[in-house]
Amino acid sequence: MQAGKPVLYSYFRSSCSWRVRIALALKKIDYDTFPVHLIKDGGQQFSEEFQTLNPMSQVPALKIDGVTLTQSLAIIEYLEETRPTPVRLLPQDPKKRASVRMISDLIASGIQPLQNIAVLKKVGQETQLTWAQSVIGSGFRALEQVLQSTAGKYCVGNEISMADLCLVPQVANAERFKVDLSPYPIINRINKTLLTMEAFQVSHPSRQPDTPPELRA
Amino acid sequence: MQAGKPVLYSYFRSSCSWRVRIALALKKIDYDTFPVHLIKDGGQQFSEEFQTLNPMSQVPALKIDGVTLTQSLAIIEYLEETRPTPVRLLPQDPKKRASVRMISDLIASGIQPLQNIAVLKKVGQETQLTWAQSVIGSGFRALEQVLQSTAGKYCVGNEISMADLCLVPQVANAERFKVDLSPYPIINRINKTLLTMEAFQVSHPSRQPDTPPELRA
């Protein structure tokens, strides 16, 4: 790895890692990937080495500018503040910024944590699928209703934002848990629009250095 | 209620509502409280009226400047951007801002959602206490380790920040679930320091308009 080049500790399938990968791609920040396999070896995120980087034992973590950052939204806000070009991920208007953060937090606090690997393990194998479907379902019902008043081409108006970086990976999780997306036409439409963009494609779980061959695009 | 005065939809015991109450107190923003009882009537957050305000059926929601905001951290960021004085809740330096947001997100995405009322109801009465103790315990172990490198008098250095607004209400939850705090000396010390401040006292669950008489300070 090149000195000074940012390093992203990432797992191909982690939706929180994917959020940051999209931000890095949109902002054209070159980086190296350090894969952390969340299943293998009982979870490489629990290794002593990784816990020094992130005591929460979660991906992503980003080494950049001489520091190690964790928590995907905190990382994205940092990238936005230090690298506002070429693409802004937060609008200028405070009320629109609030909408972007509300949607991002709805997903990042209200949905994803309730269906991540650690929680599903606690829930137990028999009920984890219905549990995941239920928490994603309630979250998406609320999100669809929020988007009715905020969405344009994207989650908030016609400019891409941090909210979109949360939406697409969460829809991928929903699909993995076989959630029926037909009750959520706005979520569905925005997700499809975003998936045509290069930044969402290069950052996709099917195209990462640690993607297993059988899941490669 | 006075026209133009902000209205906070709040539940005395909700840790997310408390975060926002502290922000409003620190920034000396006068507001009315509209209590939403999360238990009574099967949960008033599920009423049609409240779901129009917040489709996620969660407190807090804040009516301010002609809009209704939800998600506590999005609300606090909005208050910070529109009312930076008299107390700033985010430092100026981007790396310190990232530390504040990392700690805030660790609590707001990594701990609180896993032990809120809705999840504990799903978990079931018999196991909800051990579940809550376990998720708060893992979160606090990580948080204590993070604070070893960020904390001064408060969570990040010697200036109060959004991270502190997340810490105190989460410690109150921990106490309610009888989590032993002795393994977390830094969390404990910062919490005690903050609880001596007026903004944390007036916003305390024991002093809200909807606090039941038997729980009043």
UniProtKB/TrEMBL annotation, chains A, B:
Subcellular location(s) per record: Cytoplasm
Alphabetical list of Pfam families matching this protein: GST_C_3, GST_N_2
Principal location class: cytoplasm
Domain GST C-terminal: 93-213
Cofactors named for this entry: glutathione
UniProt-recorded Gene Ontology molecular function terms: glutathione transferase activity; maleylacetoacetate isomerase activity
One Gene Ontology term, aspect cellular component: mitochondrion
EC number(s) given by UniProt: 2.5.1.18, 5.2.1.2
Pathway listed: Amino-acid degradation; L-phenylalanine degradation; acetoacetate and fumarate from L-phenylalanine: step 5/6
GO biological process: glutathione metabolic process; L-phenylalanine catabolic process; L-tyrosine catabolic process
Catalytic reaction(s) noted: RX + glutathione = an S-substituted glutathione + a halide anion + H(+); 4-maleylacetoacetate = 4-fumarylacetoacetate
Organism superkingdom: Eukaryota
Keyword Transferase listed: yes
Keywords: Cytoplasm, Isomerase, Phenylalanine catabolism, Transferase, Tyrosine catabolism
Keyword Isomerase carried by entry: yes
Record domain GST N-terminal: where: 4-87
Gene3D superfamilies listed in its UniProt record: 1.20.1050.10, Glutaredoxin
Stretches that traverse the bilayer: none
Family that this chain belongs to: Belongs to the GST superfamily. Zeta family.
Protein's name in the database: Maleylacetoacetate isomerase
Native species: Phascolarctos cinereus (Koala)
Taxonomic classification: Eukaryota, Metazoa, Chordata, Craniata, Vertebrata
